[in-house]
């Protein structure tokens, strides 16, 4: 039985209906999961609540969580513990870099820009996993979203690629630490999808075009395809899988 009925998942990083986090929320909702949404600041509170209201029969909960602030992360998970007790998984769908660091040459990245990208896009997974661990007393899954630019050079992705490499390695070390508590930690390496964050990447359209022309499936992937892979990784379907990066990218990563 692979229904998620009776299980609770925290979805971090819904900005709008195009967000990959929203694709994951829809997939988990469809199979009966209870959802908890966290948002970076008040600006996203109403949009997230409005979106969640479209999920029929979903009794969602909402908490602010600025992942750059350790106290804020601790407070969010303390509130979740108080309100629901046990959780069964987390979808970490958070990244940020300054726009000026997502074009031109990587060599020009400032120290501040480098640290900011790593802080929000990589360290946040560590902070979240640490605070969530005590709430995952029945075991569970943590999924993060990464990108090919962390494995090899992708034009303009620059500092975010380096942050994704750090995220990928953090995911593996966390998988090793949390495995003894039956908590699995994995990443989805998504192909490019037009979202708010993607807009920040220089010449994003040509990245999309490359996929349409060259990827084995000759098309870009959808939010729903990322969502169903997240469902797989967060459910018992993937019981033996941890520390893994699954590419949901129309096969593009196999090309040299
Ligand atoms: O092509 C793509 N869209 C891909 C995205 C390909 C492969 C991977 N990804 C990754 C991204 O790098 C990111 O890790 O997927 C994840 C989700 O990104 P998304 O769905 O593409 O983008 P978006 O809808 O903009 O959501 C990212 C959200 C933020 O939105 P804003 O508008 O604030 O940038 O990350 C959240 C926020 O909701 N976020 C934060 N959350 C908590 N604390 C923070 C923060 N400090 N900063 C950003």
Explain what the structure shows.
With 256 residues, the chain is of the alpha/beta class. The chain has a single domain, classed as 3-Layer(aba) Sandwich (Rossmann fold), CATH 3.40.50.720. The chain is 39% helix and 15% strand. It has 7 helices and 7 strands, in the order E-H-E-H-E-H-E-H-E-H-E-H-H-E. The protein has a 7-stranded parallel sheet, with helices on both faces. Strand 1, helix 1 and strand 2 (34-39) form a beta-alpha-beta unit. The model has no long low-confidence stretch (mean pLDDT 97). The structure holds ligand 0WD. Residues 13, 15, 19-21, 40, 44, 65-68, 93-96, 120, 145, 147, 190, 192-193, 195-198 line the site of ligand 0WD.
Main attributes of the structure:
single chain; 256 residues; alpha/beta; Rossmann fold; globular; binds ligand 0WD
Give the neighbour order of strands across the main sheet.
3-2-1-4-5-6-7
User: Ends: how far apart?
Assistant: 39 Å
Bound molecules: ligand 0WD
Whole-number tally of structural domains? 1
* Shape assignment: globular
Number of helices: 7
Backbone CA Rg: 17 Å
Number of strands: 7
CATH hierarchy class name: Alpha Beta
Condensed summary:
With 256 residues, the protein is α/β, with parallel strands linked by helices. Helices cover 39% and strands 15% of the residues.
């Amino acid at each position: 039985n692979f229904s998620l009925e009776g299980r609770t998942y925290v979805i971090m990083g819904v900005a709008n209906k195009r967000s990959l986090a929203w694709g994951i929320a829809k997939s988990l909702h469809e199979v009966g999961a209870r959802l908890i949404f966290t948002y970076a600041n008040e600006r996203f509170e109403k949009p997230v609540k409005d979106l969640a209201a479209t999920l029929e029969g979903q009794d969602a909960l909402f908490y602010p969580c600025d992942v750059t602030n350790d106290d804020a992360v601790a407070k969010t998970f303390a509130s979740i513990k108080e309100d629901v007790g046990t959780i069964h998984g987390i979808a970490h769908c958070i990244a940020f870099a300054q726009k000026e660091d997502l074009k031109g040459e990587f060599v020009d990245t400032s120290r501040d820009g480098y640290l900011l990208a790593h802080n929000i896009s990589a360290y946040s997974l560590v902070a979240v996993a640490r605070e969530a661990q005590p709430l995952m007393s029945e075991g569970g899954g943590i999924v993060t979203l990464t990108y090919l630019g962390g494995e090899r050079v992708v034009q303009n992705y620059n500092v975010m690629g380096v942050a994704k490499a750090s995220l990928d390695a953090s995911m593996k070390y966390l998988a090793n630490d949390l495995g003894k508590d039956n908590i699995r930690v994995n990443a989805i390496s998504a192909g490019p999808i037009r979202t708010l964050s993607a807009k920040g990447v220089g010449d994003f359209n040509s990245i999309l075009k490359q996929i349409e022309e060259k990827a084995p499936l000759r098309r870009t992937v959808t939010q729903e395809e990322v969502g169903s892979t997240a469902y797989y990784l967060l459910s018992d379907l993937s019981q033996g899988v941890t520390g893994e990066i699954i590419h949901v990218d129309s096969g593009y990563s196999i090309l040299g």
